[in-house]
Amino acid sequence: xxxxLVGSSPLPASESADTANLTSYAEIKAALLKQHAGAKPxxxxxxxxxxxxxxxxxxxxxxxxxxxGTVEYRAVDxxxxxxFGALIDELNAKxxxxxxxxxxxxxxxxxxxxxxxxxxxxxxxxxVDSALTLARKLDPAKVQFFSLFxxxxxxxxxxxxxxxxxxxxxxxxxACDLDRxxxxxxxxxxxxxxxxxxxxxxxxxHLVARGLKLxxxxxxxxxxxxxxxxxxxxxxEVVVAGG
Length: 243
Description:
With about 240 residues, the protein is of the alpha/beta class. Helices cover about 45% and strands about 15% of the residues. The protein is built from eight helices and six strands. It has a four-stranded parallel beta sheet with strand order 3-4-5-6, with helices on both faces. The chain has a two-stranded parallel ribbon with strand order 1-2. Helix 1 crosses helix 2 (about 40-65), helix 3 runs parallel beside helix 4 and helix 4 (about 115-135) runs parallel beside helix 6. The model has no long low-confidence stretch (mean pLDDT about 90).
């Protein structure tokens, strides 16, 4: 298959020789401290997270190639409806889009009394604005599946995530609407937290301590595929949780 991956991060260049062969977090951070001598800890931490993210992008692209797929990476801010819409128009003109997985999202957890309107807009808009652009621009006659990755937070709530819960609930209700109008499979999957990957990876110990069971990546991936292949019309909202 041919995949077009859309992300906010630029396509990473090759990694510096200073860190390329390092595997432990301690070794990587030590090397970055040398690279950013005199910098504040926050700067080094940001460089460390950027390095890990770039490694993940390169590894995923390589894995797709190894599996025999064709992949193109495009750096686009999906909140920019003009830029994102132009990419969709370009792909439509090249023969159309057969399927879409919408996994965009950011979290900036705070209690509502401490939340700024700008932060709320970033969290809400990253999911909702991009999904609405897709709904406007995709050709329903060609799209065989449209899978929106939402969150179990939209069903049960979570402390500090009023913005995130609201955004995900919009995705779920958008799926209900499109499922009625589009011939292909449209589903919103309200995921519980995944282990190892995704936005909550940094919170894994905290979540486990609260008694939550996490979704193993292999299990979650199989669920995602099964919902596209075996899911039926009239079932646009699905909840998947660990355990």
